[in-house]
Amino acid sequence: MVKKRRIKIRIKRFIRTFKRPIIILASLLLIILVLNITNSNYVVDTIKDRTNLIINNSNVTKDLNQNIYVENEVVYISTADIKNFFDNTIMYDSNYNMIITCGKEKVASITIGNSEIEVNSAKVKLKSFATEKDGIYYLPLSELGDIYGIKTIYEPSTNIVTVDYLSKEYIISTANKNVSVKYKPENLSKTVAKVKKGDSVIIVNNNENIKNGWTKIRTTSGILGYVKTNKIGQMNYIRENMPENIKEENVITWNVFSSEYNIKDRTATLADGTKILSPTFFNLRDESKGKLNVLIENNENKYINWAHKNGYKIWASVSNRGYKNTTKDALNDYKNRKYMIEQIVDYIVTYKLDGINISFTSIPEESLNNFSRFLTELEPRLNEIGAVLSVDTLEASSGIVKCTYKASV
Question: Architecture of domain 167-239 in CATH?
Answer without folding.
Answer: Roll (2.30)
